[in-house]
Amino acid sequence: MLDNIRIVLVQTFHPGNIGASARAMKTMGLTRLTLVNPRCFPDAEATRRAAGASDVVEQARVVTSLEAAVSDCVQVIGASARLRSLPLPHFDEPDEMARTLVANAERGPVALVFGRERYGLTNDEIRHCTHQVSIPANPDYGVLNLSQAVQVLAHEVYGAWRRADNAVPTASPSHGPLPTQQQLGYFHEHLQRVMEGSGFINQPHARTSDHLHALFARAQPNRKELSLLRGLLSSLEAHLDPPS
């Protein structure tokens, strides 16, 4: 199940931070590393800082966009300071995040996303996430190095996995398979098209879209439910633009 959990680093500037993050991952049983547009990779400094985790560095997947890094994921959690301008669901406590991530990793790939060393993730990148998480720290000095942040959250994930692995199974209804981020992206594009076509919104970047994105992230519809919603949108769209 830990193989379904990937760590995504976005535009890492210092190659040493890639190696140190790989080391932090491996100590917690995580080996799936994805790099989005790293400034310098591969690099000897990344391998040196990885120490005994050089295999994680060597097997890292390199992609050109965050969208490509997480398109097949059923949950994507962005590690950042809380952005109140974006109404995504937010985990105030990392242990709560870890329990949710581990549970969803049983159903498909999931990702923890970390931004640039100096200014983290952009608003547009956060929009590719389903949730946010922050690491509680000294309010007067809450600065963590990239690899330290990876270590803290990876430790929480490993602890949640150990507890879940040792827990006595209890019967619970199946929620059904979750959609990937690519499938959710198609849904949000469809929803946006219908909202604009109906005149419900008339500004491409209206806050309404962000709030609806957050609503469906909280609701976490499964694939069948998402298909029903897409069918509803298609029906509405047909009435908005009837064939001539």
From TrEMBL:
PANTHER family named among the record's database cross-references: TRNA (CYTIDINE_URIDINE-2'-O-)-METHYLTRANSFERASE TRMJ, TRNA/RRNA METHYLTRANSFERASE
NCBIfam families xref list: rRNA_methyl_1
Membrane-spanning segments: none
InterPro entries according to UniProt: Alpha/beta_knot_MTases, RNA_MeTrfase_TrmJ/LasT, SpoU_MeTrfase, tRNA_m1G_MTases_N
Family label: Belongs to the class IV-like SAM-binding methyltransferase superfamily. RNA methyltransferase TrmH family.
Protein name per Swiss-Prot or TrEMBL: tRNA (cytidine/uridine-2'-O-)-methyltransferase TrmJ
Lyase listed as a keyword: no
Gene: trmJ_1
Top-rank taxon: Bacteria
SUPFAM superfamilies listed in its UniProt record: alpha/beta knot (SSF75217)
CDD domains: SpoU-like_TrmJ
Family annotation (Pfam families): SpoU_methylase
Domain tRNA/rRNA methyltransferase SpoU type: 5-154
EC number: 2.1.1.200
UniProt entry keywords in alphabetical sequence: Cytoplasm, Methyltransferase, S-adenosyl-L-methionine, Transferase, tRNA processing
Keyword hit for RNA-binding: no
Compartments where located: Cytoplasm
Oligomer status and interactors: Homodimer.
Role this protein plays: Catalyzes the formation of 2'O-methylated cytidine (Cm32) or 2'O-methylated uridine (Um32) at position 32 in tRNA.
